[in-house]
Design brief:
The protein has 116 residues and is an all-alpha fold. 72% of the residues lie in helices and 0% in strands.
Amino acid sequence: MESEWPSTSVLVISAAPLLQTSIARVILRDSLLDVRLRISLIILSHLIFLSLDGCELMFVGIGFVVVPIIVLSYIRINKQRDETTQAALESGEKNKYTNQQLREMGDKAPDFRYTL
């Protein structure tokens, strides 16, 4: 099976003197120094992936803790607002805010409910 690239010896002979050293490094890539460098790069890349995986798992864990807390607090706040609204309706109190005032109050408005 012939490759379309010339052999490495032809490349070294026909290359300019500045390129011969880099090509010689490619040819000698199995030397001990290059093997040590490759091993250290492989170990470093695995450490980086492990630390990034750890960060990802940390954020997932925080989400598992924080989301139920937020849901429970929203349920509690909505119940309090329902009770306040029900008590105001039972006492015969009418809406004391205009629509514009309610919009400006945002989530502080008495008829605002949190949803997910």
